[in-house]
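P.,

For your records, the input lines for the assembly:
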Amino acid sequence: MMLRGLMTGLALVVSLPAFAQVPPELLNNTRRQNGESITACFDTTATTLEFDREVARLIADSLFVDLQTRDGFGGFPIDGAGFMDELSIAMNNTCDLFMGISVQVNSQFPEWAAVSRPYASMPFVLAVDNPDWQSLADIPHDRKIGTALQSLGELVFITWAQQQPEAERWKRLPYANFELMLKRVQDQSLGGMLLWQPSLVKLQQTVPAARDVRIIDLAPVPAVDVHVGALVSSKDSFLRSQVDEAIDALVADGTITALMERYGYTGHAGE
Amino acid sequence: MKLGLMKTCLIATTALLMLGTAAQAQGVRENYEPVTDEMLLNPPAEEWLMWRGNYANQGYSELDQINKDNVAGLQLAWAWPMADVGIQETAPLVHDGVMFLQTNNNIVEALDAKTGDRIWQYRHVLPELPAAWGYQLNQARRQKNSIALYGDKVILTTVDAKIVVLNAADGTVAWEKQVLDYQVGYSYTIGPLIVKDKIISAISGCSIAGTAGGCFILAHDANTGEELWRFNTIDDPNNPAQQESWGEVPAENRWGGTPWATGAYDPETNVTFWGVGMPGPYAELIRGSGDGSVLYTNSTLALDADTGELKWYYQHLPRDNWDLDSPFERILVSQEVDGKMANMVVSVPGKNGIAFGLDRDTGKYLWSKETVQQNVVTGIDPDGTVHINEDLISTAVGEAHLICTSVSGGKLWMAGSYSPKTQTFFVPLTEACNTVAPTQTEFTAGNAVGAVKFGPRVLPEGITEAGLVQALSVSPTEGDSKWQARSRPSMTSSLLATAGDLVFGGDAGRFVKAWDQETGEVLWEQRLNAPIGGYPMTYELDGEQYLVIPTGYSNAASSISSAFPEIPLPTGTGNSIFVFKLPAAK
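Structure tokens returned:
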């Protein structure tokens, strides 16, 4: 029953609208012959790529379908130029799910895509080199703070700063290269760095010096979590509901929590 | 294991390529006449040797066989479908009876310019595992890279940041050079300028996380590929004012500054002129630069062609917060006034559609003229200081403002043309506005790929016609409106001016038109298969003048087509060129 419904859902995917910035020849107009499988797509440059792969496999197992995977979508500009074009082609032609999506209220995803229920929520953290500081409030205001460029953490930091008198703000510099940001913390150019906790884990796995920084409280800036989910075609409401149910089950039975612990991720499963 | 897979993919790709090559009949153009420095300095009227026809980027032809008395009689000579789909921004060249046509995915075709028959085709091979390489694939379908002719070679710049040099006779690769690292995001999206054995071009991809701190105009030896100089548009250690203009943001945290259009060259002074695009991130709230002007974004740069040394700069839009970048074509104009030569750079450099005249030797501001409706620039002082509307700068994440022109222009990549005969500058423009809001909305969790949120492109209040051809009468003291030709659909092609007193160009409604240079009256129009695109050009062969009109899929059409819904866009791309000429004399 579930499988038959899923296949119906997959057939509906082909009726996605033509997207404004994509030449129509690039959009397949054929009915997918997936059989008893779903295809999950991944951003190969994603911070949590391997974690997302495992979640996709768990979702597929829950739905009793095989999992096909496709990697891509790396290297886009910080303004996102071209990303939606490629995503729209992939979602039309290939992908049933796009894993590792940031689930936010003001999502940029257009109406042809819907985000699933989050399968994990992981925090932004403030990492410092100075042993005397216990929270952001301890860092002198004349020190600069590095923030992960174009991130939810940066958004919250900026929004908080704009609400303060100028003398009570920290100067902020945006970084896309976290190894460079770490270097600037350790050479004292920066007082601290605000980045996603999985990004810090990744950094600590590849750069030994990253193990020397420690996490302190972000207060007075509010805590912020990124909710991670999957993208599903908004036309395929059945698949989306099935994926949501699968995620709920994986959260409820502790599978996602165990996975997060294995990867060293803090935060919590689900929303 | 991974390496093994990569090798297998590579072998498979190579094998497929060989099969593909074998299936194409590759011809040879015997006795091809090399393009000399002298030809580039003084292009023969019957040929079209470079992007905009001459070093001055004028988009002007001395040919006048097709003129305002007979243009209504134009007939189709031949047409040719392009080799790939994608956004169509092609700039065909003609030399020695051969048309060199670059199309999407860095494909170049050599066609017999009289018959339209293909002589050879070159297909650029992208690196292995391209699926993981989304941005360059996206850019590869946006064929903006013009090509260049020099000696017996065809020179192209590629999306994987290479210079590739082909033998013009048969399309085989003579040599190629990896200029910058595509894996961090660098990509060529504009074509080369050839100056005295040098290939001068500029890199793109400067808004990608991995390219922070470096966006370059570069010169390479045209014979060996050796790099001769590079100029960084966002980090100039020789200019303290440039550094201060980014506030406390060090070079390693700067993005943007992409030159998006091939430069011009003045042989008299050996100076090359380039336009530079917007800063990144778009909003100063995010980039941390405070009220700094963020040089050299949205500026004209004058560089010594031999050394890359900066001679002068002028900033057309300081403190950009709206992606209203100013990289478009710089046109060199010389006029004799009271026995003295006035040498100018004339341009509508940015999306906001404001025309500028600058002194070419000093960079001194001469004049400016507004064209389409815009609300970002509030005034320009006599000394050239540009004032912006600070009320339109977002002070909170998510705060939206209605900005005119839109992120798609106003002015866009479609180049204007200048007629020395009528001393008139013709500019293709679009009336449009959109809301702009800085919104930190990363797509993939944890990645530095976010977005400024742009609302839909709409026409300014009270305006029903999106398209505008603006004719400006140019002098050293002003750019005065000579005429305006408006159309309901947006303009989608560059313009070509000729000594036949005509201006050619076209729109999203698939109409190619010829306007009278003096009056703006439409003297000929023809509806084709798709939005008119690319760079119309003209050449003469065996005593007959030909007019080349590219058509195809157009972002300039699709991004604002909802403003003129009664004119449907084709569902196919239809990327083609149409070649017209006059009926044979009886």
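Two observations worth noting. Residues 1-23 of chain B have pLDDT under 50 and may be disordered. The radius of gyration of chain B is 23 Å.

Regards
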